[in-house]
Amino acid sequence: LGGTLDCLDNKLTNLLGLLFKAATELTMDTNGAITVTQMVHTVDTFEDAASDDLVTINGGTTVGLIIIRPAHTDRTVVVKDGGGNIELQGGADITLDDITDHVMLFWDTTNSKWVDFGG
User: Fold this and answer.
1) Is the pLDDT assigned to residue 7 strictly greater than 70?
2) Is the pLDDT of residue 11 over 70?
3) Statement: residue 21 has pLDDT above 80
4) 32 found inside a domain
5) Which of 64, 66, 75, 88 lies at a C-alpha separation of 20 to 30 Å from 106?
């Protein structure tokens, strides 16, 4: 595959050799929920709190694979296992406390849950 890929005039970013639409920021609501609209997002805490729990990710039927990272190094996003529609390997929460921290999740249509990749 070579040349230019034009995805309806949307800007794409080359990440690890794969092309993704540039990340957009989502802010958690009071219930620790976000609604994804594309594959790559940054996530911010509700009202810029120092730390916040991400419990629910809406939009699984629209976007089946997501990569999220915190929007700011000074605000921690804790991806919570089992509290809403997120199921993480080993039942352990994932703490994203630096903008270089990322997590990739896929939508499990059978169980209606976001699941992380594990070995």
Assistant:
1) no
2) no
3) no
4) yes
5) 75
> Mean pLDDT across the stretch 16-41?
87
3-state secondary structure of 102: coil
Tell me the two tokens of residue 64: 């089946």
Asked if residue 105 lies in contact with residue 86, where contact means CB atoms within 8 angstroms, the answer is yes
Host domain of residue 111 = 25-116
Q: What's the mean pLDDT when you consider all of the chain? A: 87
Total number of domains constituting the chain: 1
Share of the chain above pLDDT 90, in %: 72
Task: Give the three-state DSSP class for 67.
Answer: strand
> Could you give the CA distance from residue 84 to residue 8 in angstroms, rounded to a whole number?
34
Q: What is the pTM of this model?
A: 0.82
Is 93 inside any structural domain? yes
Q: Is residue 8 part of a domain?
A: no
- Asked if 12 and 18 touch (Cβ cutoff 8 Å), the reply is no
CB atoms within 10 A of CB 105: 23
Distance CA 112, CA 108 (A): 6
Q: Is 119 exposed, middle or buried (0-12, 13-18, 19+ CB in 10 A)?
A: exposed
